[in-house]
């Protein structure tokens, strides 16, 4: 297990968590079940730095659990955010037997509402610039590739992907109100794309 700290060029107003998993957690019907997600990288963006816990082999799992749990105790858990709170909540529960309350970053739900879509939208609207992601992503936004990369021992690629995700999520959180206003005609009162609506191509 490694703990890696990386400075970031900008700060986040709220602590952000992002995890990568080494399996594809499906239920009996083939649907995602995040409470079966096995974390291999747990990243936290706090203030102007990112702290990552990287699991490289199963014998270190107890040390990994302690590291993640202890770090959660050092931050304001009540203010923790994640792009998809269901994933982080489920995966932390699987790993630790508990999860802090996590607030959602994703502005709204529906087909195609990925962090890549929202971040690219901010670039198109010139609200952000391409360099604001801070880090290059070896997986090109494909979180679904993390299990394969981890199994192949490409731990550094998974870690760098996590770095990039965290900085994109911080930018989406910063501009969440702008995104909601832009898309408000397409969103229902429950925070989902209206039935029959689709996201604009970007």
Sum this structure up briefly:
By secondary structure, the chain is an alpha+beta fold. The chain is built from six helices and six strands, in the order ββββαβαβαααα.
Written account of the structure:
- The chain has 6 helices and 6 strands; from the N terminus they run E-E-E-E-H-E-H-E-H-H-H-H.
- The chain has helices at 61-72, 85-96, 115-124, 146-151, 155-174, 176-183; strands at 2-7, 16-21, 39-46, 49-54, 81-82, 103-104.
- It has a 4-stranded antiparallel beta sheet with strand order 1-4-3-2, with helices on both faces. A two-stranded parallel ribbon has the order 5-6.
- The termini are far apart.
Topology diagram in text:
Layout: E1 2-7, E2 16-21, E3 39-46, E4 49-54, H1 61-72, E5 81-82, H2 85-96, E6 103-104, H3 115-124, H4 146-151, H5 155-174, H6 176-183
Helix pairs in contact: 3-5
Count of individual domains: 1
Helical run tally: 6
Report how far apart the termini are.
39 Å
User: What order do the helices and strands follow?
Assistant: EEEEHEHEHHHH
Record keyword descriptors for this entry.
4-stranded antiparallel sheet, two-stranded parallel ribbon, 202 residues, Nucleotidyltransferase, domain 5, alpha+beta, 34% helix
């Amino acid at each position: 297990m490694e703990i890696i700290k990386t400075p970031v060029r900008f700060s986040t107003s709220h602590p952000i968590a992002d995890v990568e998993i080494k399996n594809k957690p499906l239920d009996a019907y083939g649907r995602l079940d995040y409470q079966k997600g096995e974390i291999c990288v747990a990243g936290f963006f706090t203030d102007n730095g990112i702290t990552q816990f990287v699991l490289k082999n199963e014998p270190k799992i107890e040390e990994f659990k302690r590291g993640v749990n202890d770090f959660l105790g050092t931050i304001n858990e009540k203010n923790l955010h994640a792009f998809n709170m269901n994933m982080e909540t489920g995966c932390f529960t699987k790993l630790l037997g508990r999860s802090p309350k996590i607030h959602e970053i994703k502005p709204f739900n529906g087909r195609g509402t990925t962090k890549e879509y929202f971040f690219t939208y901010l670039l198109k609207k010139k609200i952000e610039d391409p360099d604001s992601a801070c880090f290059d992503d070896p997986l090109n936004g494909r979180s679904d590739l993390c299990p394969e990369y981890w199994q192949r021992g490409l731990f550094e690629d998974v870690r760098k992907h996590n770095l990039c995700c965290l900085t994109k999520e911080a930018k989406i959180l910063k501009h969440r109100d702008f995104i909601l206003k832009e898309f408000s005609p397409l969103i229902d009162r429950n925070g989902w794309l209206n039935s029959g609506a689709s996201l604009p191509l970007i």
